[in-house]
From TrEMBL:
CDD domains: ExoIII-like_AP-endo (cd09086)
Keyword match Translocase: no
Record: active site: 106, 147 (proton donor/acceptor), 248 (proton acceptor)
Coiled-coil intervals, chain numbering: none
Cofactor(s), by name: Mg(2+); Mn(2+)
Record-given protein name: Exodeoxyribonuclease III
Recorded GO MF terms: DNA binding; double-stranded DNA 3'-5' DNA exonuclease activity; endonuclease activity; metal ion binding
Binding note for cofactor: Probably binds two magnesium or manganese ions per subunit.
Gene Ontology BP annotations: DNA repair
Sequence similarity: Belongs to the DNA repair enzymes AP/ExoA family.
Site feature: Important for catalytic activity: 218
Species assigned in the record: Rhizobium glycinendophyticum
């Protein structure tokens, strides 16, 4: 099973690019982030014609997450992260596919830091930790997948000094990610490539992609029951080269 994550950065504005990548890469499961579309505007008919069933949690102009499954329908198991009844941001959806639980997430950016947005990010991270611990207690094959908006180590950022005070790299955020992993999750790409510089995001500014001035912020965290099934992983960097593309590249694993 090929499982991918892709921050599409506006699903309707980049639908043709998404469909092109789905046709070329043929992933079995896809977690999408930053839909930037309300539920009613999610292009499920076009995705159905491409062979994908879907569940989605949209939001007008911002956020939004979805899970696609090729030639089948995902079974939604949760919509929204628990822990704050007043949180209206669409950042988490979960589905069961072929006996595996897939949690698709779009963690807050948190900039500027310090400030209210950074505080919200840390609160969201704590809610994720609490919920993730409960998922591990189920002892099922489970994956938490998506745009975590954190570079866990110096290997995951092209210039650590430049990002030292950014909300994606501040010590509090890296510590929160490390605490999450320490519950028993495996960072799939880092597990397979422990010393390799890997990037999944390049800003649009200052010719970042051509200079390979990138960040690794899109991650797969696998439960102990799923980790032994991990075979391969990769980044479809070529998609980042397409005209009008997202600033993220699709990332995938084979299980």
């Amino acid at each position: 099973m090929k499982v991918a994550t892709y921050n599409v950065n506006g699903i309707n504005g980049r639908l043709e690019l998404l469909l092109r990548w789905l046709s070329e890469a043929r992933p079995d499961v896809v977690c999408l982030q930053e839909l930037k579309a309300p539920d009613a505007k999610f292009p499920h008919r076009a995705l159905e014609r491409a062979g994908y069933g879907a569940v989605w949690h949209g939001q007008t102009s911002w956020n939004g997450v979805a899970i696609l499954a090729r030639d089948r329908e995902p079974i939604e198991t949760r919509r929204g992260l628990p822990g704050d009844a007043h949180d209206q941001q669409s950042r988490y959806i979960e589905a069961a596919i072929d006996g595996i639980i897939f949690g698709c997430l779009y963690l807050p950016n948190g900039n500027p830091a310090p400030g209210p947005k950074f505080n919200y990010k840390l609160r969201w991270f704590k809610r994720l930790q609490d919920y993730a611990a409960g998922l591990l207690d189920l002892e099922l094959k489970t994956a938490l997948i998506g745009d975590f908006n954190v570079m866990p180590t110096d290997l995951d950022v092209y210039n650590p000094e430049r990002w030292a005070d950014d909300a994606l790299f501040r010590p509090e955020v890296r510590r929160a990610y490390a605490n999450l992993v320490d519950q028993g999750w495996t960072d799939a790409l880092r597990h397979l490539y422990p010393q390799q510089r890997l990037y999944t995001f390049w800003k649009y500014l200052r010719n970042a992609y051509a200079r390979d001035a990138g960040l690794r912020i899109d991650h797969f965290l696998l439960s102990p029951q799923l980790t032994p099934d991990l075979k391969r992983a990769g980044i479809d960097r070529f998609v980042r080269e397409w005209p009008h593309t997202s600033d993220h590249a699709p990332v995938w694993i084979d299980i």
